[in-house]
Amino acid sequence: MEQKIKLKFKQLFETEPIMYCAPGRVNLIGEHTDYNEGFVLPAAVDKLIVFAIKPNTIGKFRFFAFDLNEQFETEQNNITKSNVSWANYLLGVIAQFSKEECQVPTFDCVFGGNVPPGAGMSSSAAIEVGMAFAINDVFNFKRSRLQMTQFAQMAEHEYAGVNCGIMDQFASMHGKLNHVIKLDCRSLDYQYFPLNMEKYMLVLVNTGVKHSLASSEYNKRRNECEEGVRLIQKHDSQVRSLRDATLADLDAHKNEMSEVAFRRCSYVIEENERVEAACKALTESDFVAFGQLMYASHQGLSQKYEVSCAELDKLVTIAKSIDGVLGTRMMGGGFGGCTISLVEKQKVSNFENAIFANYKTPDGNKPDVFEVVIGDGARKL
Ligand code: GLA
Predict the structure, then answer these.
(1) CB under 6 Å to ligand 1: residues?
(2) What is the model's pTM?
(3) CA 263, CA 254: separation in Å to the nearest integer?
């Protein structure tokens, strides 16, 4: 893939590029907790978006999306939101550097890769993070990984219109081979946990449903959580976010909030507790307990937070009945994309066959299955 992107760059721009990449991510547990200042447990994977880039002297940014075979160009002083949606991920990042007094000189860029779009593996974060990392390195802006992560997140807010938390961009930027990251989304402190899975494997199954509803429903969930926080705050000004609230706080003010806001908030508070419990289980190599927490996470996401869909629920029900599965749940923002399952290594092929026998994507095909390989974060190639 790296070679294909490089070759395309040379064909288009007749010069040798500098190469970078940024990975997609999985999240083991801790869904929709990041924008509530809670905890998450993601890891970068071996699926990558690769960038070929080189400064130019023509006063224009020229981009080429390899997987779509589409090009885009714009003048240096005309960085605004475009109606070409993929270009926004790149433009959004350039805009963040400029805001921080790093005027980005013009460049040519070809990018593409194998992070499946719309599968909940954060292909958009990989594009934003890879772009931020490449710009920072090529132009020697000396921004930290954390600052670049925040640029990437703001690009998603301002240019893609999704008020996402920081998990995806953080994982893509800070991933570490064979480790998961426990991230405190308030302090942004993080800890790497080695994932010693001699006997187990994480397996993703793609529903084949692209999470197109996700952006508007996503922003709606954020608002519902904020509604809950505002109500609790009236009684306890120490509560800044759901991170600070307990189920008892929530129960005490149940009658003051809508039934929907109550359910959303109780899911988030419980999910935060599950991340803590999951990290403990991981430290003790108690994969059975870890699996149970995954099931509970899915149940909350499906019934209380309502970000699942029929296909995700179906995959979870099927997985539950397969021998050798310790836990499974939907992963990422929801409304489509993948499930993540913890499966005994020796039973992975049995798992995959059972999934193929019982699930077809909405267009009648075999679902894509990915055996997760945890890799490093954004880097120069
Ligand atoms: C999307 C967002 C993340 C996070 C997840 C849900 O992937 O980009 O910030 O909120 O959904 O956990």
Answers:
(1) 31-32, 34-35, 122, 164-165, 167-168, 332-333
(2) 0.96
(3) 10
